[in-house]
Amino acid sequence: MLYAKYELSEGYMTDSAENTGDVLSPKNVPLEPIISSEDLAKLRKTNISLENRNYELRETVRQLRLQIAAAESERDQYRRESRKYKTEISQMKTPPLVIGSVEMMLEDGRVIVRSTTGPQFLSSISEGVDKSLVIPGAQCALHPQSFVLIEVLPKKYDAAVSTMEVEEAPDVQYSDIGGLATQKNLLREAIELPLLKPKLFEKTGIEPPKGVLLYGPPGTGKTLLAKAAAHETNAVFIRVVASELVQKYIGEGARLVRELFALAREKAPAIVFIDEIDAIGASRSADAYSAGDHEVSRTLMQLLAELDGFNARGNVKIIAATNRIDVLDKALLRPGRFDRIIEFPLPTKEERETIISIHTKKMHLAKDVSISSLAEATEGFNGAELMAVTVEAGMQAIRHNRSTVRENDFAEALNAVKRGREQPEARELPPGMYL
Ligand code: ATP
Fold first, then answer.
1. Would you state the pLDDT for residue 210?
2. How many angstroms separate the alpha carbon of residue 337 from the centre of ligand 1?
3. What is the DSSP string of 241-300?
């Protein structure tokens, strides 16, 4: 029930009224209801429907808020995509940067840069570039129009260097090499001792040899022995064929040499094996000096510079190999460079016997096979050819569906290899065979 209000000053509340909470008129007269029960019911109904409506509207607001959040996140995504496409478009519009290497720093803050295509530029350095990184030899990018140095490229070895044959402690042991006893001892002294016992040289007060040159006919075990030295010293074996160092563009070969040695220092202890060194180390007559020759000699100069700046007691060793020592530049052979020269001759009869025994170690040989008479019959053969004879004899046995190799298999193999030696162009070999 709803009652009319009274001014408090005019009315009062009885004790019971205080207790029950009923409001009484000053004269304790019950108040007249000011709204009928029907109206009250209607009001209550209206109130309920308004509350429902309120709830509905709140729900709508909540849904709309969710929709706004989704739309905003979609907008942000489109913004990001648009930024990405804008960058891509601007990248497509920008001409490619010129790559070069810093050659010299001038006192006025400018640098001389040689681009990979050949020409040199006198460039200034852009504001945002860290000047401490701009050092001679650093790879950098130049703006294509102004040739301002705008970026120093991260120190990364050239792809040609990183694809060079790098073997962690190769799986070749001295026992896998037949003969070559003197060569093994000389290489031990020149490579193994300085790597394993550098203190010994310090105490004796001498410098170990910096580089070792192996020379002799092809297939006489030069690479094999260098790998065995790396195995023995647990060193990383980095093999490069010198002709790979001769590049098309000026200065590129020299940079490859620098990076090759940087790679060796990083992987130390390491043995750098430069095969066919005559490709860069051959002396040239002054009258036939072409631009290509200049590039080759620049590469050789860099190699000599690396050798000169090399710590002989350090843990990087250099072995070079050649079949043509007669054409090598004298500068390479002077003391302090490749000062230990080891000859690899063709194997003697006894050595041929050992080499054949090594390569037939895992083969099933028939009783009639005599390694000694095989060694006799292979006069003038090198190690690679001896190995070829054993492989071909094994192939003959396989062709006849046998696992035991007989004397006549070796006889046929010997003839095939001899034919290949005498007339390389008229080799009668089954397809897929290389001797
Ligand atoms: P190149 O001058 O052509 O590079 P190389 O002298 O470096 O030749 P290697 O690559 O060492 O010759 O030898 C070629 C193969 O011949 C070896 O993989 C090995 O199987 C065999 N060979 C050569 N010499 C010997 C040897 N003394 N003992 C055992 N095998 C040998």
1. 78
2. 25
3. EHHHH--SSTTHHHHHHHHHHHHHHHH-SEEEEEESTHHHHB---TTS--HHHHHHHHHH
Q: Whose CA is nearest to atom 31 of ligand 1?
A: 383
Number of structural domains the chain divides into: 4
| CB of 363 closer than 8 Å to CB of 405 | yes
C-alpha span between 57 and 63 (Å, rounded): 10
Could you tell me if 120 and 191 lie in one domain?
Answer: no
Of the candidate ranges 270-274, 317-321, 417-421, the one whose mean pLDDT is the lowest: 417-421
Q: Please tell me whether residues 338 and 258 are part of one structural domain.
A: yes
pLDDT of residue 281: 73
Instruction: Give the closest residue (by CA) to ligand 1 atom 1.
Output: 218
Interatomic CA distance for residues 7 and 147, integer angstroms? 95
Does residue 364 fall inside a structural domain? yes
Measuring from atom 16 of ligand 1, which residue has the nearest CA?
384
Q: Quick one: pLDDT at residue 2?
A: 45
**CB of 194 closer than 6 angstroms to any ligand 1 atom:** no
pLDDT of the residue at 433: 54
For position 104, what pLDDT does the model report?
84
pLDDT tens for each residue of 72-131: 999 999 999 999 999 888 877 777 888 888 888 888 889 999 887 778 889 888 888 888
Task: Give pLDDT, residue 161.
Answer: 59
Q: Is 226 in the pocket of ligand 1 (CB under 6 A)?
A: no
- CATH label of the domain that carries residue 302: 3.40.50.300
24, part of any domain: no
- 171, 187, 223: residue to mutate for ligand 1 pocket, most atoms within 8 A of CB: 223
The domain of 303 spans 161-343
Tell whether ligand 1 has an atom less than 6 A from the beta carbon of residue 179.
yes
Average of per-residue pLDDT across 376-380: 85
